[in-house]
Amino acid sequence: MNINLLFLTPYNLLNYGGVQHQINLMNDYIRKTSNIESKIAGPNSKDYDLGRVLNIPFNNSVASISLFPDRKILLKAIEWSDVVHIHEPFIPLIFWKLPKNKKYIFTHHANLNKLYTFFMSIIYKIVKIKGISVYVSESALSNAKTLNKQPILIPNMIEINKNIKFNNTKKFLFVGRNEKRKNFNYFNLLSKEKSFQNYEFEAVTNENIENFNGVIYLKPNDEEKNVIFKNSSIYLALNTKNESFGITLIEAINSGNIVISSDLVAFKDVLEESGIYYERNSYKSLVNLLTNTLKSDLDFIWEKQYECIQKYDIEKNMEHYVLLYSNN
Question: Which residues in the chain come in under a pLDDT of 50?
Answer without folding.
Answer: none
